[in-house]
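Friendly challenge for the regulars: who can give me the structure tokens for this chain first? No prize, just bragging rights.
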Amino acid sequence: MLHTPVVICAAARAGFLLSVVLAATPLGAAPPAGQATPAPAAAATVPGTPATPPPAAPAADAQASAAAGEPDTRGLDTEVQGLKKDAVDLNKDLFILEEELLFPANTQVAVFLSMDVGDFFALESVQLRVDDKEVIDYLYTPREVQALLKGGVQRLYVGNLKVGRHELVAYFNGQGPNERPYKRGATIRFEKGVGAKYLELKIEDRQQKLQPEFVIKDWE
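First reply, four minutes later:
Bragging rights claimed.
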């Protein structure tokens, strides 16, 4: 009977000390040394639900950034086009000046060629002789022949002749009726004056004779 009050007093004292310790410990305090901090629980994922992708940058911002990084070349393109036009104009002026120096009007003679054929002759080449001297032997491409058939006029030859009488002989080579080799010639005697002289070689179909006709015309 004498030991019972002592046990009760010891238990009460132990409970009082435990209450004091709990009251003195703040909420959220770090755990005692030697104990690991528990990791936070991962968010629960519902099976079958696709993961949400991270938000993409707005397209407008991307385009604005790309445009800001590219230099504006419109002014440069305009300047390049202007330089090209100036170069073409300069080349044209130099060509005219060269012709005036090489072929002055008082000695110049020019020969042109035109075609009005379709059934009786296919042009391949033309040879010119002036005063019994060959001045040109021109071989035509299919593209050039097509241009002549559409009404084009070719400046075949340009040269210099002194004042006086001269002779021009032209030889035409190609395919005639029935696609057989065909060669014909035409001759003209002309008077070269002080000014420039222009001659034209004309190739035409002769329907009555079913063959081509070659004529040299003097532009007076």
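Confidence is low (pLDDT under 50) at residues 1-32, 40-44. The first strand starts at residue 108 and ends at 116. Your move, everyone else.
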